[in-house]
Structures are given as structure tokens and as C-alpha cells.
Model the fold of this input.
Amino acid sequence: MAALSIHTKDLTKKYSGKTIFKNISFELSSGDSAVIVGRNGSGKSTLMKIIAGIISPSSGTMSFMNNGNKVEFHDVKRKLGFVSPYLNLYDELSAIENLRLFSGLKSDSAAGDEGLVSLLELTGLADRRNDEVKTYSSGMKQKLKIAFAMLNEPELLMLDEPRSNLDKSGIETMERIAEMQKGKGILIIATNDEDDLKLCSKRINIEEHK
Done:
């Protein structure tokens, strides 16, 4: 899917009769980058979950296209990378074991350790790859989530509050990965951080859809 695009129309989400947001429409193609902004609790993460297929909208439509042809979501999700605070790691497993597990879930066959170690090198965790994740700091766990998101070279990379708990080197790594993604696919970031806003060319403001 070298030319992936996302098409949404009038996405609306309600919980217990309360409207979180309504009528959000946008289109993104390979090479595009968008930031989702809004105050805390406004629905940024909810919209990210809808795009990632974790939850469904209350109404509205979303579709994925490849060179003008519709792509089913089960094919898209194999090329989707997602970093978020609410995704859990297996604390009793090491970093490399976590990556092996998630790699097997994302594709028909797990990636080889050489590729997994390269991802850990990219995120600065290679020296701790055999340590149980329960020994990791919150910043190291965030770096590991970024490594997860890069499995299978995602064509759609989604980052929900990506700077959470990262130190300076971790932030630099995240920004470098974001810039790389813009050259080969679609990047979506949910954030209110001013530095993250500079990484994206388009903006989706949740506050305008209440």
C-alpha cells in the first residue's frame, strides 16, 4: 500500500447520550501529517482510537484507499503503528520478548531478532533488551512503545501524547521518527505540545466540533 489515504466524513462519538465530538471530516494521503488538538478530556484520544479501529464512531464514515481502490481495515492494521499511554506492555517479559510477541500478532510470521534489535537501537534500548520490562522507567516504556509502533514499517503512524515521560534524547528520537514517517506515509499526532504542532502540516481542532 504505497499510496495509502484516509477518508472520513462526519465522524461523531457519543457516550451515554453525551456528544464528545461531532461531524469531523478530513482526508489524509501518503506524505500528509496532521495534529489533533483540544483541551484535556476533549476527545483527542477517542478520535485516535476510532482511526486506529479500536472503537467505532457513533455515526459517520471512515474508509482507507490505496491508489483509488478501497482497502479493508484488516489489511490496513498490519501497516498501522500506534503509540499511546493506554496501550499495555507485558511487564514480566523482556523488551525483545515483547517485540517478538507483537511482531507475530501484526504479521503472519514474527520478525527476526536482528530487525527487532535494530528497533531497540533506534530507541536507545538495545543494551536493556533482555531485561524484564517491569524494571524499566516510565520513559523507557514509552521508548519501547515507539519501537512497537515501528514494527512492519507502518504506512500510518499514530502518536498519542508522544512526549510523555521522555527525556531529551527520547524526544529527539521521537521527532526523528516523525520526520522519517512524513517521507513515506501518513503521520497523525494527538497533542497540545507546541513542539509537536510544528511537526505537522494540518490541524484537526476537536473544540470546533462540539
